[in-house]
Input
Amino acid sequence: MKIEGKVIVVTGGASGIGRALCERFARDGARGVVVADQNGAGAESVAKGIGRTALGVGCDVASPEGNVELVRRAESAFGPIDLFCCNAGIATGGDPLETPLDVWQRQWDVNLMAHVHALRAALPGMLARGSGHFLHTASMAGILSSHGNLVYAATKHAVVGLAEWLSITYHHRGVHFSCLCPLGVRTPMLGDVDSPWAKAAAGPIREPEEVAQSVVDGLAAEQFLILTDPQAQTWMDGKAKDPERWLRGMRRIQGELEKMRAVPAPQKS
Output
């Protein structure tokens, strides 16, 4: 997929990876870039910085209605959507025994169901045209898990499974799917890149602009799985080859993080 001349929607576009994607797509000649974010002022600011080929939309992508309105405004401004980037995400939560159920529900709604609502709003039009592309931002937490935050790891695993199923089911009908699984990225979600957790568990930390480059390259190559560092593939290969060894290594890191109090120790009965 080439970006030039395409109409693209990016959720979570006001900051981090989303902002870098919007700005990169605009530089690469997209016909229209829709910057969507719950932070409407932030979305409009990013769009204003891009210029007349961008539109800022404030919306809650965790709701069906928000996605329907987002698609309506995108198509009204620029025409049929060629690429929909489901990029919005949150990382609240932690230990399953301590995280309130409403936190579970909100993260489920934002990290997974927002993708489902986007599909229901935009996929029918793509199928009717026989062309289109979805980019689902997951995380290496969705493949290799994540220390300290079960809620995030579980929802990102769900995103990977969703994207795989969609690619299997719709590829032959002209609609393609990619799954972006970064390691650590210097964004507000990651926080302090010098923290004990980041140094021990985040992997090589990339800049959002580097992730955007990986996305552009991956889309051009029609890749399903888009990674941001060769180390991720090495770790994935290790997990596939010897899951027991991989688990032992992850447990060792968990113990080290608990000693440093970088993650909470599990509750005792």
Summary: The chain has a mean pLDDT of 92. The domain at 7-229 is CATH 3.40.50.720 (Rossmann fold). The longest strand covers residues 175-181.
